[in-house]
Amino acid sequence: MTKTAVVCGAGGFIGGHIVNRLKNEGYWVRGVDLKENEYGNMQADEFIIGDLCNAAVAEKATAGMHEIYQLAADMGGAGYIFTGDNDAAVMHNSALCNLNVLHGAYLAGAKKIFYSSSACIYPEYNQLDPDNPNCTEDSAYPAAPDSEYGWEKLFSERLYLSYSRNYNMQVRIARFHNIFGPQGTWKGGKEKAPAAMCRKVCEADNNSYIEVWGDGKQTRSFLYIDECIEAVRRLMESDFTGPVNIGSEEMISINDFAKMVIDISGKNISIKNIKGPTGVRGRKSDNKMIKEKLGWQPSMPLRKGMEKTYAWIKEQSSIYQRPAVNV
């Protein structure tokens, strides 16, 4: 019997890649989102254009599915999440998506459901030192996320675990740490740091500068998309519920990250640090649990993934800026 799966948020970056991976494994796949994938990176057998904030859409999306991958959320980069201007929409829309998709999966009798949580759930007080952040899975409590986005993710983790306890649902929860790569949003204000950095460098002239928010001493780890998808599939095939970190342990300051992208570009560009939203001072994935529970951890060097990402964004940038030709 052919295995079936629905990917909620299939119009997005990670969702599109998950659809393709499942198709390559022989699944029949349904995608659902407010929009189709921006870059055509989605091979679903069926695609539903719909808002998962609507319970009827969520029930239609999950009907008849063996596996549910719930990635739909109201999200974006630091400029969207950390200003506070979008907090109500982020919490309302994302919470409704999770309530509806999870209950739809329960009604459908789905065998397994995956929920994509975030490293943003970790307490701000454990991430004040840029050189020594603490993001072990058990450090989530006492809770003190640095954004409403993080609070909603933490609430939803507990929601999924409650359904697991009360209804015997097979739930899998992962906390993503800054996933990046080709076919992701790279302009418009909702792009994440790796894509934004690539775009800035692509668009900058030689002997000019790019702007970097904050003092640039804040640290992060970034995980290439292929390794994220591999981790998700391994988690779904395992007996481990989670939550578990899916991220890299290779930590880098934002200024050094910018310098890496500049070096990849071959341009002569300087860095100008400006005021802007930065999030916590330090964050990187702690991979002890994923090694213990899945016998695996990500291994791709950051630079290798950034070389692939820069090449893709450079190509997209040139297409975007190319003048129209009248024929």
Please name the defining characteristics of this protein.
10 helices; 39% helix; alpha/beta; 18% strand; 327 residues; Rossmann fold
CATH level 1 name of the domain at 4-180 and 224-246: Alpha Beta
* CATH level 3 topology of the domain at 4-180 and 224-246: Rossmann fold
Shape: globular
**Unreliable stretches covering 5 or more consecutive residues:** none
What is the mean pLDDT?
93
- The number of helical segments is 10
Find the count of extended strands (DSSP E, 2+ residues).
13
What is the ordering of alpha helices and beta strands? EHEEHEHHEHEEHEEEHEEHEHH
What is the radius of gyration?
Answer: 19 Å
Would you tell me the structural class of the helices and strands? alpha/beta
Described by strand count, sense and barrel closure, the largest sheet is:
7 strands, parallel
β content, as a range? Answer: 15-25%
In which order are the strands of the major sheet placed?
3-2-1-4-5-6-11
Helix content: 25-40%
The CATH architecture of the domain at 4-180 and 224-246 would be 3-Layer(aba) Sandwich
Distance between the termini: 50 Å
Description of the structure:
By secondary structure, this protein is of the alpha/beta class. It has a domain at 4-180 and 224-246: Rossmann fold. The chain has ten helices and 13 strands. It has helices spanning 13-24, 55-62, 78-81, 87-108, 148-167, 193-203, 225-237, 254-265, 288-294, 302-321, and strands at 4-8, 28-33, 46-49, 67-70, 112-118, 170-176, 179-180, 208-213, 219-221, 223-224, 244-246, 251-253, 269-274. Helix 1 links the parallel strand 1 and strand 2. Helix 1 crosses helix 7 (225-237), helix 2 (55-62) packs across helix 4 and helix 4 (87-108) runs parallel beside helix 5. The longest helix is centred in the first third of the chain and has 22 residues, at 87-108. The radius of gyration is 19 Å and the shape is globular. The model has no long low-confidence stretch (mean pLDDT 93).
